[in-house]
């Protein structure tokens, strides 16, 4: 059985991609938290692998960043390419990409 104290690969990707996407969008943790309807502390805990998120929270975060849920779980190089291509000009209230 895997060691439960070590975050899984997807959780690590989520934390890295969430922080990267937030920074590319030039958002603070507080701004992202407000757009996603949660506390700044919660966002920080996700980024620092101290919090395991539900699917509902993952969806709220992706919507606030104008990303698809799968983008937040993608390989790091994939989300970097996506965000560089789309640029930082998206607002936190932009809604989810279709």
Biggest sheet layout? none
The helix-and-strand class reads: mainly alpha
Spans where pLDDT lies below 50 across 5 or more residues: 90-98
Helix amount: 55-70%
> Mean pLDDT across all residues, rounded?
84
Total of DSSP H or I helical runs spanning 4+ residues: 6
Q: What's the total count of β strands?
A: 0
CA-CA gap between termini: 38 Å
Assembly status: single chain
* Helix-strand sequence: HHHHHH
Radius of gyration over all CA atoms, rounded? 13 Å
Shape: globular
**Beta-strand content bin:** under 5%
List keywords for this structure.
98 residues, mainly alpha, 0% strand, disordered C terminus
Short description, anyone?
With 98 residues, this protein is an all-alpha fold.
Any chance you could write out the topology, listing elements then pairs?
Elements: H1 9-24, H2 29-36, H3 40-47, H4 55-64, H5 69-72, H6 76-86
Q: Can you describe what's shown?
A:
By secondary structure, the chain is an all-alpha fold. The chain has six helices and no strands. Helix 1 runs parallel beside helix 6, helix 2 (29-36) packs across helix 3 (40-47) and helix 2 (29-36) packs across helix 4 (55-64). It is globular. 58% of the residues lie in helices and 0% in strands. It has helices at residues 9-24, 29-36, 40-47, 55-64, 69-72, 76-86.
């Amino acid at each position: 059985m895997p060691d439960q104290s070590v975050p899984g690969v997807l959780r690590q990707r989520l934390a890295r991609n969430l922080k990267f996407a937030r920074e590319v969008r030039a958002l603070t943790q507080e701004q992202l938290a407000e757009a996603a309807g949660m506390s700044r502390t919660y966002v920080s805990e996700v980024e620092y692998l101290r919090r395991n998120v539900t699917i509902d929270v993952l969806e709220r975060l992706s919507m606030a960043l104008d990303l698809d849920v799968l983008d937040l779980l993608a390989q790091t190089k994939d989300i970097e390419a996506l965000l560089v291509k789309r640029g930082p000009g998206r607002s936190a209230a932009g809604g989810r990409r279709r």
